[in-house]
């Protein structure tokens, strides 16, 4: 079956896929499990932070007007009438010439309007009473952390769709989120196809290879924030394959197959899509590797028919599956991060299609510089292990030279 | 207790800590769980990849010498004597003027030395026999993926100490690692201190705040690849605190406390270290925030006494605890990634100590540019949520200007 296929541009293919964006639900999880998950509701402050005027230092709370007479050699003596640890409250009002010993974070007592740091004081006892000698003048409101100065009640702090980092966890804790609303992860099925595939724990046989794509996909799905569900490898049998794929589709949000989308006699996916009544969005993309990448839809369940070639499979996932995962998670930014980088080497080879080269980027004095991660024949899985980006070289040009600016897609490792 | 403390430079403090590097053990885990873990053994190819000469295309395997007479209008007709799917082997030897239909990835049959792509052929049947018409001359060894051309048997592919990404997972699958040797994660205890702390599910009370540092730490520990073990918050009671900390130390590889390391009357950690007979490596670092950061050692168990101030706690963790985790995991690179970036704003404030500002970096035409993530008073947890780097401003200078190059520490979000 040697079908005529019309390649569509990469950008157009991505647009086709993202039309089918399916949004997931919200679930509540423990705060200790929230890191790297996607916040499903805006985080809005429901109280001021600090929630009371407090001391930023260890020292003494006092009335600044009592320090106006302090001169270089004339300290002022105040009577120490209390002691406030963090978490405690001084319940009386501070009177003239009184001071209260106060710890970092403790609330400013009534009547006090300034804090003097411990190192600017001397304490002593006389007749069983405590005194503090003040060596500095203080201004009204000096050294006070004011109620709401960090965050005002009602402030929108973090937008939904943001990936939760440790700083956001601190905010969630501050506002009492023992349970955190996050986007439910999509469950994505993975099926490898091809009679040549051995499982990873099987010994090699002539003509066969171990199934590496499915495990690679599982890693890529985890990295993208999805839950991979691996359904094993299918041999090249149409009826069995069709039955398995129909079953699996009921259990997953999306399905990825690797292999079987080319024009070989055993490439069964095109026929399976037909049997399923799937709407084939495209079956050829103007890119290398992965030109045979196919995406089909049955209602709102997308079937990603990725190439059996490891690099093509990898690239197809990052370009086409990742945005769908981001949409499902309702992330603020959709798809893999793209930046401009300087090429460190020449690419003389001209190609009518866009090329996606497994690359490495690094910083040279703060500037993004990129080069290929290794040999670049598309069957070479070794360079995938070294890659931290994909270098995009638009097709139909004169080739690229060292120093040219190119787009790189950051893989996020 | 107003101790005299001698601040040591940040670099010196890091050096002190990393002297105590404790290396973890190796454990074996499922390949599907291996992503983001640290490889504990060098990954060395134990067979060639491909492990046999194979076809890179769908097409026909043939003897190139049979195509020497092919001219533009004179195709050569070969007899099709077999059909090899991927995973199958053709067990006979190819004779003169014979061809075998072959799929991508299938082994080259004996006697064949070239592959012609399907699109350069026409097939037909005559008297019940299959023939293929060849329209191209082929060279000896044309279109063959050779045994070992991707990876040669014995090649060192990935060094131990490397973080496992999806490409490395593909390699591990290829070489049959159903179980993967990875560095065991360190178990790190987290204890918050301070009578002012409420748990996250408790309602606010006057003078009290919810415990956010411990949860933030848990997130930072997860990000750094450790297993956090949270032991709750201690009130400011020496005896109870000492007992709890002594107990916990038996269960963890390292212990982090937050709060209680300053000079306040309720800052109990200095006394606890003394009671434990701990070797205090330093109790003051020439940095802001976090100058009171203290690290002590009991044998090879490090006790990180981080500040109770959220930003100081955060910075102290990234500078001092993270390298220890990396060492424990025997990572190839130790400590947080540092790069040069261009400042987008002025910092006029002069400080004798190094400052670590919560920052954001982004790329402007491939160039790292950085600015503060928000307000920078050290109690302001909001800017921590927005930060993706720490901007390091060395102390004792004239301040910094927009356009200056500064070191940033990438937080890895």
Can you give a write-up of this model?
The structure is a homodimer of 413-residue chains. Chain A is 18% helix and 30% strand. By secondary structure, the first copy, chain A, is an alpha/beta fold. The first copy, chain A, folds into four domains: 161 residues, MoaB/Mog-like domain (Molybdenum Cofactor Biosythetic Enzyme, Chain A); 47 residues, Molybdopterin biosynthesis moea protein, domain 2 (Alpha-Beta Complex), CATH 3.90.105; 76 residues, Molybdopterin biosynthesis moea protein, domain 3 (Molybdopterin biosynthesis moeA protein, domain 3), CATH 2.170.190.11; 74 residues, Beta-clip. Chain A is elongated and about 105 Å long. Chains A and B meet through helix 2, strand 13, helix 3, strand 20 and helix 7 of A and helix 2, strand 13, helix 3, strand 20 and helix 7 of B.
Strand content of chain A: 25-35%
For the largest interface, the chains and their residue counts are: A-B, 112 and 112 residues
**Roughly what is the average pLDDT of chain A, rounded to an integer?**
93
Q: Which structural category fits the helices and strands of chain A?
A: alpha/beta
Number of helices of chain A: 7
Global outline of chain A: elongated
Strand order of the largest sheet of chain A: 6-3-5-4-8-7
| Shape-level CATH architecture of the largest domain in chain A | 3-Layer(aba) Sandwich
Q: What is the number of beta strands of chain A?
A: 24
CATH class division of the largest domain in chain A: Alpha Beta
Intertermini distance of chain A: 40 Å
Helix fraction of chain A, binned, reads 10-25%
Structurally, how many domains make up the residues of chain A? 4
CATH domain fold name of the largest domain in chain A? Molybdenum Cofactor Biosythetic Enzyme, Chain A
Largest sheet of chain A: 6 strands, mixed
User: pLDDT under 50 segments of chain A (min length 5)?
Assistant: none
């Amino acid at each position: 079956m040697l079908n005529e296929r019309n390649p569509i541009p990469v950008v157009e293919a991505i647009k086709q896929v993202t039309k089918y964006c399916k949004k997931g639900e919200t679930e509540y999880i423990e705060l200790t499990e929230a890191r790297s998950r996607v916040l499903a509701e805006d985080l809005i402050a429901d109280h001021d932070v600090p929630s009371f005027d407090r001391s930023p230092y260890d020292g003494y709370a006092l009335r600044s007007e009592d320090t106006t007479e302090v001169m270089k050699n004339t300290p002022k003596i105040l009577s120490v009438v209390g002691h406030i640890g963090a978490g405690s409250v001084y319940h009386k009002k501070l009177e003239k010439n009184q001071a209260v010993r106060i710890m970092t974070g403790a609330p400013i007592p009534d009547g006090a309007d300034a804090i003097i740091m411990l190192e600017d004081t001397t304490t002593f006892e006389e007749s069983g009473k405590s005194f503090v000698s003040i060596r500095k003048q203080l201004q009204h409101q000096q050294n006070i952390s004011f109620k709401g100065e960090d965050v005002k009640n009602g402030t929108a702090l973090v937008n939904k769709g943001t990936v939760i980092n440790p700083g956001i966890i601190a905010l969630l804790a501050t506002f009492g989120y023992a349970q955190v609303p996050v986007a439910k992860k999509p469950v994505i099925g993975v099926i490898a196809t091809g009679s040549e595939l051995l499982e990873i724990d099987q010994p090699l046989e002539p003509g066969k290879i171990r199934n590496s794509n499915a495990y690679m996909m599982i890693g890529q799905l985890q990295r993208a924030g999805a839950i991979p569900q691996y359904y094993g490898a299918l041999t090249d049998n149409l009826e069995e394959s069709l039955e398995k794929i129909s079953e699996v589709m009921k259990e997953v949000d999306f399905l990825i197959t690797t292999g079987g989308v080319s024009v070989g006699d055993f490439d069964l996916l095109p026929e399976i899509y037909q049997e399923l009544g799937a709407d084939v969005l495209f079956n050829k993309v103007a890119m290398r590797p992965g030109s045979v990448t196919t995406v089909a839809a049955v209602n709102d369940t997308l079937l990603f028919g990725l190439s059996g070639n490891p690099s093509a499979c990898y690239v197809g996932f990052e370009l086409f599956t990742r945005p769908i995962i981001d949409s499902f998670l309702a992330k603020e930014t959709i798809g893999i991060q793209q930046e401009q980088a300087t090429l460190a080497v020449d690419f003389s080879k001209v190609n009518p299609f866009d090329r996606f080269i497994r690359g490495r980027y690094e910083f040279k004095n703060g500037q993004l510089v990129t080069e290929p991660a290794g040999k670049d024949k598309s069957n070479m899985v070794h360079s995938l292990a070294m890659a931290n980006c994909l270098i995009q070289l638009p097709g139909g040009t004169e080739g690229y030279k060292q120093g040219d600016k190119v787009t790189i897609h950051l893989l996020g490792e």
